[in-house]
Structures are given as structure tokens and as C-alpha cells.
Amino acid sequence: xxxxxxxxxxxxxxxxxxxxxxxxxxxxxxxxxxxxxxxxxxxxxxxxxxxxxxxxxxxxxxxxxxxxxxxxxxxxxxxxxxxxxxxxxxxxxxxxxxxxxxxxxxxxxxxxxxxxxxxxxxxxxxxxxxxxxxxxxxxxxxxxxxxxxxxxxxxxxxxxxxxxxxxxxxxxxxxxxxxxxxxxxxxxxxxxxxxxxxxxxxxxxxxxxxxxxxxxxxxxxxxxxxxxxxxxxxxxxxxxxxxxxxxxxxxxxxxxxxxxxxxxxxxxxxxxxxxxxxxxxxxxxxxxxxxxxxxxxxxxxxxxxxxxxxxxxxxxx
Length: 317
Known about the structure:
By secondary structure, the chain is α/β, with parallel strands linked by helices. The chain has helices spanning about 45-55, 125-130, 130-145, 180-190, 205-210, 225-235, 250-270, 290-300, and strands at about 5-10, 20-25, 35-40, 65-75, 85-90, 95, 100, 110, 115-120, 170-175, 190-195, 210-220, 240, 280-285, 305-310. Strands 3, 4, 5, 8, 9, 14 and 15 form a 7-stranded mixed beta sheet that branches. Strands 10-11-12-13 form a 4-stranded parallel beta sheet. Strands 1-2 form a two-stranded antiparallel sheet. GO terms for molecular function: oxidoreductase activity, acting on NAD(P)H.
């Protein structure tokens, strides 16, 4: 397949600056890289926070976006795991140490083949674009067993001895109204060892901590006030902030095992996507790259719930 010399991309022009769709050169693949024609990219919560708060990224202008899916159109030297024409889902290039990003909000992505996975024909590009960040955010904070990882350090179900190891042990996931919290201890018979607060606001955090047994783990998706962390530690509870970036060194080992098993997990239906994954759904925003900013604004205004916003990059108008 031939590749163009230029493409359209969405840039964040400066720290807390403006977004702009403009033309940029296509990056040539280096050793170990692939070039993907990006058919779909998913929006995550972190992009709007980077723009609004000026956090995590120091090199500008930058291209954000952590999730994408498309077709391999070119191979770098030494790549043997893919061929041109493969359908893949992939993770954007975000160097959390250097504060640099070359993400998925563009029409052709060049990056390491290490962080791409083949997808079956039965899975659409839109559904596949929601995989990487969602799976990593859910998995790494529970299963990353590296010593310094912010994780509950459970044994992953895709590793030997992991499947069924925790059968019968309840986990509480907070993702909706706090009125649900009062019923949890009645259902589970008492506090539980693992609570995943997928909202992590002032309304949900006290419930999450109250539902966690001493010696247990609380997973949060936003920064937690120091006083709550101090109280949790005093009560013998550990609080872990999610970190779902595959490229971060602390995630390399667990991420490598997950990516190796991911095609099997998708094919078997152990990880379900799109209409098969209730209540998660995806919604396509019109306008390609030009639809991203409006989608991020909806997320900022809490107008998105239980759905992943997706754009089709080749439909940029």
C-alpha cells in the first residue's frame, strides 16, 4: 500500500492552549515500527485534563490520543509480527517520563509494533479503538505485580494459575450513583478486599473507603485528597491511582503479557466489545478530527456516561 507524504492531525498548540487541525508530515518508520492508516480513534478522559490543567505534557505542539485502530500500510526494518494489510488496534506514543506525546489523533500513525495487536475481522475498527486504554486502566491497577507499581498485585487471569484464583471473592466497582453504596455491604456480607472506584469524586471516594476491609485495596482514577489517603493508610487500606499507559516502564512486563494474550481474549469473547459489552457502548462523532474537540467538551460537561466517544479519522471534513 502506498502512503502519502502528508496528513491531517489534531494539535494541542501550547500548554493550556488551543486545538487546531492542520497538515503535517507523515513520520517514516524506524526499526521495529509500523505505519497504520488510522480508521478510528477513541477519546479518553486524560486529553481534556491535559489541555485544561496543563499537566503531564511538556513538549508542544503535541498530538494527543491513546487509543486507535486501523490497517498496517508500511513496516519498519525488522518487523516480522505484522504484514501490510493487517487490521490492528494500537496504543499512542506517550512518553510519560519525557512529557512528550505522538498520539492517535491523526490519519496515519507511526509507532512501535510492540504496542499493536491484530484484531479479528469480526471486530469493527470503532470497537477495536476502545481496547487499549480501557483494558490497561482496568487491568494494570489490579494485576501489575512489579514492586513499585500502584496496584493491588493480584495474579492476572491470563497468566498461569490466575484463572479462577479469586472465584467467589467479591469486588465492588463504583461507577454510578452513590445511593448504591448503602446496599453493597448487605449483598457482600461486609467490607470487601478490593474496591474499584471508576468515578473517584468527592461523592464516591468516602463510599469506596468505607466499603474496603482493613488490608484491602482501593483503586481510584483521579487524584485523591491527601487527607483521605492518610485516613485510609491509618485504617490499613491501600489506595492506588490507575496508570494505564503501556509504554511506561513500570507497565512493560504486565503489558507485554496482556498484549500477547489479547488476540486470544478477544477471539474467545473473554473481553467483549461494542454491543456485546453491556453497558459500555461506543458513539461515532461526526467530522473526523474536527469532531474531537466537541467530544472533549461534552466529557468536560459530564454529558457522557457509559459510552466511549470515537472518531473516524479518514472522514475529516
